[in-house]
Structures are given as C-alpha cells and as structure tokens.
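Ligand: pyridoxal-5'-phosphate. Inputs:
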Amino acid sequence: MEIGNWAHPLMTDYCNLFLDTLKSVVAKPAMLHEPNFSGNEWVYVKECIDTGWVSTAGKFVERFEQDLATFTHAKHTIATSNGTAALHACLELAGVRRDDEVILPTLTFVATANAVAYIGAVPHFADSEEKTLGLDANKLKLHLEAVAEINDNTCINTNTGRPIRAVICVHTYGHPVDIDPLIEVCRAWKLILIEDAAESLGSTYKGQHTGNFGRLAAFSFNGNKTITTGGGGAILTNDSDLARQAKHLTTTAKTQHSWEFNHDRIGYNYRMPNINAALGVAQLEQLPEFLNNKRRLANRYRSAFDGVKGMQSFQEPEFAHSNYWLNVILLEPDNENQLEPILKITNDAGYMTRPTWTLMHRLPMYETCPKMDLGCAQSIQQRLINLPSSSQLAVQ
Ligand SMILES: *Cc1c(COP(=O)(O)O)cnc(C)c1O
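Predicted complex:
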C-alpha cells in the first residue's frame, strides 16, 4: 500500500495504513517504553552490594541528587521512593490541607489525583489544550472567573465554599505545558503552582528545565520513564527552606542526634534506597544520549506519519523542547471510531500502542469532584494513540 496517497479508505485500510506507517519506522516487537541499561549500572549496583550500603543511607543518594540538580539547573533535589510519594510530599510542603481544593488536569495519570486525595484535599478537574496536551490556562482563567472569588487573600470556590489552594500542572507525555500563562493565572488567583514533572526529565520550556517554574515539582524514575531507578522519584525546588523541609519530611522527620531517636512531626519513609540511587547515577550519565535517540525517533515518526491523512503526530510547540517520552498520534475527529481497531491491529502485530488514561473525572472515586467543561480532554481521549518510544528503537 502506498502511504499517504489514498482517497476513501475502508476502516481496515485506515488501520492497515497506520500499521504500515508504524512498521516503516520501527521493527517489532516494540514495547511502549523499555529501560536501557548499557552504562555503569552493574558497576555501581555491585559496589552497593559489595559494601553493604543498599538501603536508606549511602553515598549514591547524595550523588544522584547532586547530578540531578546539575542536569536540571535546580538549586535543590531530594530523592524519594517514587514519583507519587514526591507529589504527596510536594502538596504537604506547599501547605495544601484537608478539604482544600487542588486544580489538576483530568487528562493525567491517576497518581496526580491520588496524591491530592492522600492529603484529604479534593481534586478539581480542569481541561487541557491540544497544542500541549496540558492544562489550558485561558480556559482555567474563565472558569475561575465564573466559580471563584478571592476572600482574605484566598481563592474560594463559591459553589463549594472550599478554598482552592493550588494548581498541579502536568507535562503530559514529557511535553511541556504552556506555563507562562498558567503562572499568570496562579498569581492573579493566589494559587500555588506545583509541577507534576514525572514524565518530563530532559524537557525544557523557553530554555529552562521543567520543574523550575512551580514552587515545587515531582519527578518519577519508574521503570517506564526516560531514566529509571527501578522505582524512585524526586522533589525539585529552588527554595532552600522548602528543600530542607522536604528532606526532613521524607526521612521520618528525625532530628539530628548521634544516638537518640527523636522526631518532631509526622514524617514519611519516602527515602530512595542507595541501591536504586546507584542505578540512577548510571542512568543520568546516559541521559543526553537517551534524549538524542528519542528525538531522532520522534523525527522519524513525524516524517512517516505526516504523509498520512486523517492523523497527526504530536510535535513540540515553538516554546518547548520536549524529551518525547512517549510519542503521540492524534487522529482527526472524523476518525475517532478508528481508535479501537488501530489499537487492536497494532498490538496483535507486536507493536505496543496504547490509548491515553481514562480521564480522572470518570474514575469511580473522583466522579463527584468539582470540574469545569472538559470537552477538549474528552476529545483528545477519543483520538490519542501512544507509540512505542524507547530510546533503543532509534538505533535498531
Ligand atoms: C509516573 C507518573 C507519576 C507517578 O510516578 P511513580 O514513580 O510511578 O509513583 C505521577 N504522575 C505522572 C504524570 C506519571 O506519569
């Protein structure tokens, strides 16, 4: 079949065209995102085992934090047990409390909403825009003008009477959200901005690494992310006082003493073990190479899919430099009914493609939460396909 040169395709033609286009870029079997351990992983992990420093103390944790701060140009990073724990701690450190509302996109991984719920706060779902796949700042502004008022320097949801305390933006699939207009909305409405940068290690907005814009940010190093520590995460902040508190809160809030066990608040055991940090140090050494390869793969997808009518590969907007953690194809609205058949034909053929997440406001535990019109996120959800995106796929 000739790619990009067809007139009135039947359903199977359209799906086959998608599959053929995918085949022209990567060989099967192609997983969605696989870890790549081709550096010093064995050397550093072996060192942990040989010396016995495998757990919650050891030199690799500090080294990982320093290397991560250097890479992201952040003043402080605090390694954690995973990205969800980092998000939870960010919310507590930002001063979000029980019965506050927190605005977040309905189009996100469940961890973003869960972290809000762990605090006892209430998720308030916002719409996304197609240009970034992230929060639509303008729509959020209009929504706040309709439902909120500022009272005593606090943003109040006039429908529920609850304070709206913070906004969590998500750099969806690694693609930076348009953050300047969001910062403006947060400033005008007295909202604290927190970045869920779990997917965006290596992505910059107007030249600055994601995670440096909000008061705090969370990263994830789960097995499917751009780099992995097995399980792991990090808090990033440029506020020295918050950084000190973040370390304290995530390490059981123990006060310094040579032998006494004293704790001055309810802390968490959210530490990253040294053996995981050892993996992370080795992974960070290879990150520039991973990012180059991921960009090459994204460019190949772009060339291949740009010739195909009825669908488009997602490309970074002019203000962003994306890590292309997961490549995205958006079907045109007319072709929504092709989503399921395309997922089936590609997965059957050994190519791991995936739809996006079930929207948060559709999950049983969050379906009664406050929300705005979510039309764009709903449309994206019916048309989005994630393509196999491991960095190794660019060099096969
Ligand atoms: C992966 C991810 C998280 C959670 O990270 P874990 O390390 O798996 O806990 C949070 N938010 C988003 C958007 C993610 O993709």
